[in-house]
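Support request, please re-run this one:
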Amino acid sequence: MAELFDQLTTRSALTKIARNFHRRGWMSGTAGNLSARSNNTENSFWITSSGLPKGQLDNHDFILMDLTPNDVSQRFYKSAKPSAETCIHSTIYTLFPDARACFHVHSVDACIASSHIATEQQQMLLPPLEMIKGLGIWQQNPEVNLSLFDNLLDVADISQQIQTRFKLNPPEIPALMIRNHGMTVWGNSLQQAYNRVEIIEFIMSYMARNN
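Re-run finished. Output below.
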């Protein structure tokens, strides 16, 4: 029987997922970040430390963050710093209480696909592929949009834009794309978030090859 990520401890699962994504070119170098809620409390989550190669993580390369206040609760090395995108993960967990895991990856295909969208557009219309069913969309020829945000120098400004827009208009699917940067996907479990990254990356690859 396949070993599901939710059968592992949180940090062990995140380590395996990081190495998997790195092998597939979605977390090259130190790019990208992964998080998951702590099993001990709903008000905290583990996230990858900043500046570490994602293909070489171990169980101590994570930081425990409190949602309220948004501060470090536990770290294994004094020099460890939270990922630059921690504020985005915090925003996702606050907006979507059912989210248990949030993954931010950088792929060539997603950047290519987003580069073909006009700069004034805030959505990417996804092609009606069979894979969309994996995101919970069961419609004939669905018209589904992926939320698109500009890549700003200050990540906190991106996080604020996500919070403002999603409060008014919740996303159609549990994902967003930062233009020419990377994709953030969340799910109600580690395994679901992992599956959704694979699904959306498949769609991004299709779009990159058909533009």
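The two ends are 39 Å apart (CA to CA). The beta strands are 33-37, 44-48, 62-66, 71-75, 101-105, 123-126, 144-149, 175-178, 182-187.
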